[in-house]
Amino acid sequence: MLRKLCAVLLFAVSFVGVAHAEQKTRVGNFDIHYIAFGSTFLTPSIAKSYGLKRSNYNGIVNISVLDTRKTGNPAVPVKISGIASNLMSSQVNLDFKEIKDGKAIYYIAEIPYQDDGTINFDIDISKGKELNTSLKFSQKFYVK
To answer: What's the mean pLDDT when you consider all of the chain?
Structure first.
């Protein structure tokens, strides 16, 4: 089932195009990959299996952290928390779920949105003394 989620997430990245393309930033020895997209890109069965609400007004933010010092850049567990806000400063605390699929680790949270709405993400990521950073990005969402 986890492999299906990964496949759906990869499909979502390719399907939604540049507006929702996966992004990456390097902080020290870590690559942080992040993407936000509408939850309707998940199949109903995948959404249900992970307790995610599939709706035209619900988005998903997905974060993964890779260690670039090690061969194959393996995923690493991190502590993650964050806030999402819209342009009217309405804030929502992000409740991240850790999902492990073999050696892959994903942190996924849901975010409500309105049509043609921009969501600003402010996400804190840490791993002991090795990583302590704040990831900030914005994503515009549309209703199908």
So the answer is: 87
Q: Which residues contact 117 (CB under 8 A, 6 or more apart)?
A: 86, 87, 140, 141
Sheet holding 117-127, edge to edge: 91-94, 79-86, 117-127, 131-141
- Residues 96-115: pLDDT tens digits? 999 998 999 999 999 999 88
Instruction: In whole angstroms, give the CA distance from residue 66 to residue 19.
Output: 23
144 — pLDDT class (breaks 50, 70, 90): confident
Residues 95 and 61: their CA atoms lie apart, in Å, by 10
CA distance 82 to 93: 6
List of domains in the chain: 2-141 (2.60.40.3340)
